[in-house]
Design brief:
The protein is α/β, with parallel strands linked by helices. It has one domain: Rossmann fold (3-Layer(aba) Sandwich). The protein is built from three helices and nine strands. The protein starts with 6 loop residues before the first strand and ends with a strand. It binds inosinic acid and magnesium ion. Magnesium ion binds next to strand 5.
Amino acid sequence: MDSESRLHTLLAGAEIEAAVSRLAEEVTRDYQDKRPILIGILKGVFVFMADLVRQLDFPLEVEFVRLSSYGSGRQTSGRVEVVQGLSCPVKERHVLVVEDIVDTGITVAFLIDYLRNEEPASLKLCTLMDKPSRRRVPVTIDYTGFTVPDKFLVGYGLDCDEQYRNLPDISFLED
Ligand code: IMP
Ligand code: MG
């Protein structure tokens, strides 16, 4: 049995595309005159960020930080490690944090706390997926693509032990 047969599609590529278009409309409405900085959290966000920004037709900047809370496998370690920090000033800028999935909330809450201290003009969060059943830290999400069930998801940038990031659909792994 190959590993693909353990995958069950939750969100097909076309559904994801529709959600990204809707999010892009919302972000355009709110940011088109603000020259925002979009800060993506690597690695999981790289596919979503690439699709989102190509639908934003106004001046903006793209930055990435790389944070890690997963040692390996499916369990969060609960500690956030800054693998690569922010390399641009955000003071008095409009900042939109872009995340693939908010699960326990630990990763994004850490980044938002850090950014708030840097005194941006505004600070909001856009996530492709929200998995609220697993939240351990409160997080305010301003733009949500999908609310998803408590399953470990892969594809469209999300991994399990660095595998599956390249798949165009979002699937869950059979236990
Ligand atoms: P949190 O700190 O628990 O909210 O987890 C956030 C990060 O863990 C996300 O940015 C993802 O990269 C990763 N993550 C959370 N849930 C999943 C999942 O179901 N599949 C793959 N990665 C996940
Ligand atoms: Mg991520």
